[in-house]
Design a protein that fits this description.
379 residues, alpha+beta, five-stranded antiparallel sheet, 10 strands, elongated, transmembrane, PPM-type_phosphatase-like_dom, Membrane protein, PPM-type-like_dom_sf
Length: 379
């Protein structure tokens, strides 16, 4: 035997290593949703005759309708083409069960009835619809929940306000319509100019809940990029142009852009059809409306957004919010804002610590609309 030849043992080891690597890769790809579903198909095809044999041997413990179990699992795990193979095996199992059980059944004995066939067929149809939906969306069920969770967390992270220097306090609370996890309201924020400036954008996308969530997710990423990269006066025009390019059927949004100097307390506020902000002046103890002028985002090109300027003195508070918090079909905007400021007065002595969430609970707990509230206080 020459020195370059491989021994049978070495060839067997290499073949075993390749087979093990292929199986491991197939398993990893499958559970990631990227690979073939042959592993799940093989397991379910083995389950079908096992259930059929158990039904024939122990009909009191395993009824014929037990075949819906692999069918339901197949609807969640398999592609439509593979699911048809599972259905064929299940149909063959039902025929075998009927051939064995029905002639032997007497009185109340277990048998395969037309009702049994209808139940299995109905579950199979439902499983096929689920599989076709997953195939059309392109997201396997194993990753669908993870993807939604990841999207929700991304929105939540983007909505977090950056830490502010001593002497400042900020809070943000978001509550989607109907108790859902996704909202049409979102916030993007950043500290710019070496941390000396706080820029915050609060946006209310048309629609509510899940209907607006996909657009809110897209816009939150699109708005977060240029925030701080563009001059403040150029941000809303750029956002307006972006919405116009999307050409959505219901593509408008309201937005407010706050640019706050953390050293002096001076701020500029730009508005795109958004509700006015409310500022509590510590010197007078009264709330004042801060309304900038500008049209809705995504309505027409060349829109201008004129800012309003102000200053947060020590003890002052600025509230920005969306319409779901203060406006309902039973309550107009003025009444809602009066109620909000009345509830907010209760938190003045506590420095508005933990106030944002409690204010939403007190003012608009059961409102079927997205609600968002941003508080910035200077101590």
């Amino acid at each position: 035997m020459t020195g370059g030849a491989e021994t049978p043992t070495a060839r067997m080891r290499k073949a075993w290593h390749r087979a093990r690597t292929s199986v491991r890769k197939a398993g990893v790809d499958y559970f990631r949703g990227d690979g073939s579903d042959w592993i799940a198909l093989a397991a379910l095809l083995l389950t079908v005759p096992a259930l059929a044999l158990t039904t024939i041997a122990l009909p009191a413990w395993c009824v014929p309708t037990a075949l819906v179990l692999p069918i339901v699992a197949g609807g969640l795990l398999l592609r439509p083409a593979s699911l048809l193979a599972l259905y064929a095996a299940s149909a063959a199992a039902l025929v075998a069960e009927a051939a064995v059980l029905n002639p032997e059944a007497s009185g109340d004995g277990v048998r395969v009835t037309p009702g049994t066939i209808l139940v299995v067929a109905a579950v199979g149809l439902l499983g096929l619809l689920i599989a076709q939906f997953r195939s059309r969306v392109g997201v396997p069920w194993r990753r669908g929940g993870t993807m939604l969770f990841d999207l929700r967390e991304r929105i939540r992270v983007q909505s977090k306000l950056p830490k502010l220097p001593r002497g400042w306090h900020r809070e943000m609370a978001l509550r989607p319509a109907g108790g859902q996890s996704f909202s049409g309201d979102f916030v993007v924020a950043a500290r710019t100019n070496g941390g000396r400036t706080l820029e915050v954008v609060l946006t209310d996308v048309s629609g509510k809940g899940m209907d607006a969530a996909s657009r809110a997710l897209l816009l939150s990423g699109a708005f977060g990029g240029p925030l701080g990269s563009l001059p403040p006066h150029a941000f809303l025009p750029a956002a307006n142009g972006y919405l116009l390019r999307q050409d959505w059927d219901e593509g408008f949004a309201t937005s407010v852009h706050l640019v706050l100097d953390l050293d002096s307390g001076d701020y500029e506020m730009f508005s795109a059809g958004h509700l006015p902000g409310l500022q509590l002046c510590a010197g007078t103890g009264r709330w004042e409306e801060k309304a900038a002028e500008g049209p809705l985002l995504g309505v027409y090109d060349g829109a201008q957004f004129d800012p309003i300027k102000g200053t947060l003195q020590p003890g002052d508070v600025l509230m920005l919010f969306t319409d779901g918090l203060v406006e309902t079909s039973e309550r107009d905007l003025t009444e809602g804002m009066d109620r909000l400021t009345g509830e907010a007065d209760r938190y003045v002595s506590a420095g508005f610590q933990g106030a944002a969430w409690h204010l939403i609970e007190a003012v608009a707990k059961d409102v079927n609309d997205d609600r968002a509230l941003l508080l910035i206080c200077r101590h």
